[in-house]
Design a protein that fits this description.
With 646 residues, this protein is mostly helical. 67% of the residues lie in helices and 1% in strands. The protein contains 32 helices and two strands. The protein starts with 7 loop residues before the first helix and ends with a helix.
């Protein structure tokens, strides 16, 4: 349907509703940046509507732009203050910003309109716990669990509350009940493992960590936390194995690298400890924790001059950090410079003396300690009540991640979540699509030839150069350009001057904007003008397949029509194979990938996809052969999959 088919006033009315619906669909596909562009369009057309602001806030929330989400939720609320989920969304954004008191105000507001909202009650209980309003939190969570007694996250939140109040018996009872309700909720096991660890019940904590890792074997931070438990069981070999595997899964896991360095330091494997700490500092040059320990390692390696460099850098930033002066004194002593060593000791002693005399007037520097926390951990700061010995104890011990002592606080909504952050099964190389932008980061360098598309570009028929590759999500500037282009072509369609080439350009633009209905309509108009356009069949097939509400049969018919026009389109066979793969028809998928390879024997994507499909049906030998060849041709995920096969 053409968007600009009437006067400007009517067009704005139609556009606002239509682009809002398209934006919601794009949001459900987890393309948050593009969905925001649609909501921007709706806001321009009808700035008085609450919905576009709400959905733009939701998209920003998924992008972890909590400030932007809060602001948009406020704008939505100003236009409609009776929508419960707006209070929930703004409250959650505020909670993630550390503004728990304001979040609670929003949750109270939302509960006025829906007292049974499960997640508002859950978030409210967690926020009240953070605020140490334990009695109120207990009342909130009791209400939640009275309404939803099997809600394991609510049980986990109350367990944490009980643990903070010192009632570990009640905390364990809640966690045991949560696990009984759902034995697959990893966060509940993590909460229980954390509680058991605090009680020194390391064997039981290890059992829970083993269960978690069995459920999520590809999560590197879980091995980091299990290593901590094993370390406390004096299982140095097991702890080291877990650190090694965590780093194998994620070579940039700073906490795992740091912990492995400390463990190596403890067993006097000093050179490799220094290597790990240097790796941490390359990743985070300001990591005070790693820098100080590297200085200590260099002292043990009899490299006092290197140690002096590290300690000097620390003292430049924290000139009242007395332990730095004592460490510096040891380095100077090892260099034989007793005068400087004594001066450093005297300076450290003087700082301590002044602090003891008047702590308020003469505070000691207490540098922030890098703890390898995950991005999910909120507004955590050192406890102001810790004394210097407690700070240094934390400073020189292993670190853990993922906030295992807290409930899993993630925004719950019917809109799909951040699937890109989950440990998904490896998928086939993506289907090919026509776009106005080259594919970024294409792994397989094999040229994909499409004669008709080359003619299009050579003769300048398209609105811009057309590329064939995998889907590229447009950035903000490009999305605005695509909107403008699409509206221009829509006007040509409305006045009857659009050519088949114009409709193909329009279909490509709408496909890139994920407005698949409009894309299908445009390609269909192109085919009405010329039934022999393979580009139109390829474009329409991709748009049909991208619509979750439709089956693959229409797309397969269009791909077959394209092949009747040009039987040499190897990439079309890959696209057909991907449709069969997604439908679970692995035999047909293998046949399609094989046909693609008969046409183009060095097509890495076809080899990779066929190898993956062989693996799905249990033929490891043929899978290994295809994946190995695909890797040689530049399809990098092949090596990861081969490693997992081994």
């Amino acid at each position: 349907m053409a968007l600009l088919c009437c006067g400007a006033r009517l067009s704005a009315q139609v556009n606002a509703e239509q682009v809002l619906n398209i934006g919601r669909n794009v949001l459900s596909m987890d393309d948050y940046m593009l969905s925001i562009q649609y909501f921007n369009q709706a806001i321009k057309a009808k700035p008085y509507l609450a919905e576009p602001y709400f959905y733009r806030a939701l998209a920003k929330l998924q992008l972890e732009d909590y400030k932007g989400a809060e602001e948009d939720a406020t704008l939505s609320m100003e236009r409609n203050r009776f929508r419960t989920d707006t209070y929930r969304l703004r409250g959650f954004a505020r909670q993630m910003l550390g503004h728990d008191s304001l979040a609670v105000v929003d949750y109270v507001g939302g509960l006025r309109y829906n007292p049974r909202d499960k997640y508002i009650l859950f978030y409210k209980g967690v926020a009240e716990t953070e605020l140490k309003r334990y009695s109120t939190a207990d009342s909130t969570l009791a209400t939640l669990l009275r309404m939803y007694p099997r809600f394991e996250d609510g049980l986990g939140a109350r367990a944490r509350l009980n643990a903070l109040r010192g009632d570990t018996v009640a905390a364990l009872a809640d966690l045991n009940q949560a696990i009984s309700n759902n034995a697959l909720n990893t966060n509940t096991y993590l909460l229980r493992a954390d509680l058991l660890s605090r009680q020194g019940k390391w064997e039981e904590a290890l059992q829970d960590m083993d269960r978690v890792i069995k459920l999520q074997p590809r999560e590197d931070n879980l091995y980091l936390n299990r290593a901590y438990v094993r370390y406390n069981l004096d299982d140095f070999f097991g702890a080291m194995a877990d650190y090694n595997y965590a780093i194998e899964l994620n070579p940039t896991n700073e906490a795992a690298l740091f912990n492995r360095a400390l463990l190596r330091y403890e067993v006097k494997d000093l050179q490799r400890a220094a290597s790990d700490l240097n790796h941490v500092l390359r990743l985070s040059p300001d990591n005070f924790h790693a820098l100080f320990n590297l200085g200590l390692v260099n002292l043990q390696l009899k490299q006092p001059r290197e140690a002096v460099k590290q300690f000097s850098e620390i003292l430049k930033r924290y000139p009242r950090y007395h332990n730095g002066y004592y460490a510096m004194a040891e380095a100077y002593r090892d260099m034989g410079d007793m005068r400087r060593a004594m001066a450093m000791v005297h300076q450290g002693d003087e700082l301590v003396r002044r602090y003891v005399h008047n702590p308020t007037a003469n505070p000691l520097d207490r540098p922030a300690i890098q703890s390898g926390m995950s991005n999910n951990e909120r507004h955590s700061e050192p406890d102001a009540d810790e004394d210097e010995n407690e700070v240094m104890d934390r400073f020189n011990r292993l670190v853990t991640v993922s906030a295992t002592g807290q409930p899993d606080l993630s925004y719950d909504d019917k809109i799909k979540g951040r699937v890109q952050d989950r440990d998904l099964d490896i998928a086939p190389e993506a289907s090919y699509v026509m776009t106005f932008s080259p594919s970024a980061g294409t792994l397989d360098s094999h040229p994909v030839y499409f004669r008709e598309l080359d003619d299009f570009n050579d003769r300048g028929w398209g609105a811009a150069k057309i590329y064939l590759g995998t889907a590229v999500s447009p950035g903000t500037a490009e999305a605005e350009r695509l909107f403008t282009l699409a509206e221009t072509l829509d006007r040509k369609s409305s006045d009857g001057t659009a050519t088949a080439a114009d409709y193909i350009s329009l279909g490509i633009a709408r496909t890139m904007l994920k407005d698949y209905d409009a894309a299908i309509s445009a390609f269909s108009h192109a085919l009405e003008k010329n039934r022999d356009l393979a580009t139109a069949y390829v474009g329409r097939a991709y748009a049909e397949a991208a619509k979750e509400s439709r089956g693959a049969s229409i797309a397969l018919q269009d791909y077959d029509s394209a092949l009747r026009i040009d039987p040499h389109l190897a990439f079309v066979w890959i696209n057909k194979g991907n449709l069969h793969y997604a439908a679970g028809d692995f035999t047909s998928a293998i046949q399609c990938y094989t046909t693609a390879l008969e046409l183009e024997p060095a097509f890495g994507a076809a080899l990779y996809n066929r190898g993956l499909t062989y693996l799905r049906i249990g033929n490891r030998r043929l899978a290994f052969n295809d994946l190995s060849k695909a890797g040689e041709l530049g399809v990098v995920p092949s090596y990861n999959l081969l490693k997992r096969m081994k």
